[in-house]
């Protein structure tokens, strides 16, 4: 299975900060990467698909970039509603995998 | 818009099996891929496997090979995930999810089913 490694595991930030989360794949996955946001007790929500495409209804402060093995999720100006856990997920092969998650906390 | 509705919470004994259902509505069930994802308490998301109903083909994460079976009934638009030889570490919320767009990313999720394994 392809391994996905996110960093950092936890991130402390303030409202208005620019936040970047990194996801690395153990082998090339082209652009077959998605990003999700999850809040406690809720199902994950798709933010980004195909590495950089914004899901309908997701605020434009979220953006994704990268290809191959290195990817980033950027929140341009952190809002109170953005404090959550974020996961990357690859779907390059017929076996999919998630990163271990990045918790964005209030500083 | 596709909706996925899962069966209710389960409490199981160690060594037993559990079967969770995921009923789809509002779309063309056979053409979607249905994945199963679990989340143990305080832990991250773990992809378990998926099925393409139109093909009847299932793929499983290596960790769950031999212990999980994912099936789909096209007549009722329902997918199933059965996990056997349950142990306490299988206590988790189990989600079904599906990418409905052309470029992937699971945009539709079930509400989750809590499975508790306890003696």
UniProtKB/TrEMBL annotation, chain A:
<dbReference type="InterPro" id="IPR007110">
    <property type="entry name" value="Ig-like_dom"/>
</dbReference>
<dbReference type="GO" id="GO:0019814">
    <property type="term" value="C:immunoglobulin complex"/>
</dbReference>
<dbReference type="GO" id="GO:0005886">
    <property type="term" value="C:plasma membrane"/>
</dbReference>
<keyword id="KW-0964">Secreted</keyword>
<dbReference type="Pfam" id="PF07686">
    <property type="entry name" value="V-set"/>
</dbReference>
<dbReference type="InterPro" id="IPR003599">
    <property type="entry name" value="Ig_sub"/>
</dbReference>
<dbReference type="InterPro" id="IPR013106">
    <property type="entry name" value="Ig_V-set"/>
</dbReference>
<dbReference type="InterPro" id="IPR050150">
    <property type="entry name" value="IgV_Light_Chain"/>
</dbReference>
<keyword id="KW-0391">Immunity</keyword>
<keyword id="KW-0472">Membrane</keyword>
<keyword id="KW-1064">Adaptive immunity</keyword>
<dbReference type="InterPro" id="IPR013783">
    <property type="entry name" value="Ig-like_fold"/>
</dbReference>
<keyword id="KW-1003">Cell membrane</keyword>
<dbReference type="GO" id="GO:0002250">
    <property type="term" value="P:adaptive immune response"/>
</dbReference>
<keyword id="KW-1280">Immunoglobulin</keyword>
<dbReference type="GO" id="GO:0005576">
    <property type="term" value="C:extracellular region"/>
</dbReference>
<feature type="domain" description="Ig-like">
    <location>
        <begin position="2"/>
        <end position="89"/>
    </location>
</feature>
<keyword id="KW-0393">Immunoglobulin domain</keyword>
<protein>
    <submittedName>
        <fullName>IGL c3502_light_IGKV1-5_IGKJ1</fullName>
    </submittedName>
</protein>
<dbReference type="InterPro" id="IPR036179">
    <property type="entry name" value="Ig-like_dom_sf"/>
</dbReference>
């Amino acid at each position: 299975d392809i391994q996905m490694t996110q960093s950092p595991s936890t991130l402390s930030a303030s409202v208005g900060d620019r936040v970047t989360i990194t996801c690395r794949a153990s082998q090339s996955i082209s652009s077959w990467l998605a990003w999700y946001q999850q809040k406690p007790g809720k199902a994950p929500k798709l933010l980004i698909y195909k590495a950089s495409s914004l899901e309908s209804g997701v605020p434009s402060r979220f953006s994704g970039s990268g290809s191959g093995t290195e990817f980033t999720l950027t929140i341009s100006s952190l809002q109170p509603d953005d404090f959550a856990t974020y996961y990357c997920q690859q779907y390059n092969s017929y076996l999919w995998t998630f990163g271990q998650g990045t918790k964005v906390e209030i500083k | 818009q596709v909706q996925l509705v899962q069966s209710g919470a389960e409490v199981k004994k160690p060594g037993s099996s559990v079967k969770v259902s995921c009923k789809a509505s509002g779309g063309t069930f056979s053409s979607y891929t249905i994945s199963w994802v679990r989340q143990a308490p305080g832990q991250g998301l773990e992809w378990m496997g998926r099925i393409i109903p139109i093909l009847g083909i299932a793929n499983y994460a290596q960790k769950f090979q031999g212990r999980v079976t994912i099936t789909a009934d096209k007549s009722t638009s329902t997918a199933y995930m059965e996990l056997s030889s349950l142990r306490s570490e299988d206590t988790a919320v189990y989600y079904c999810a599906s990418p409905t767009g052309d470029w992937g990313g699971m945009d539709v999720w079930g509400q989750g089913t809590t499975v508790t394994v306890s003696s």
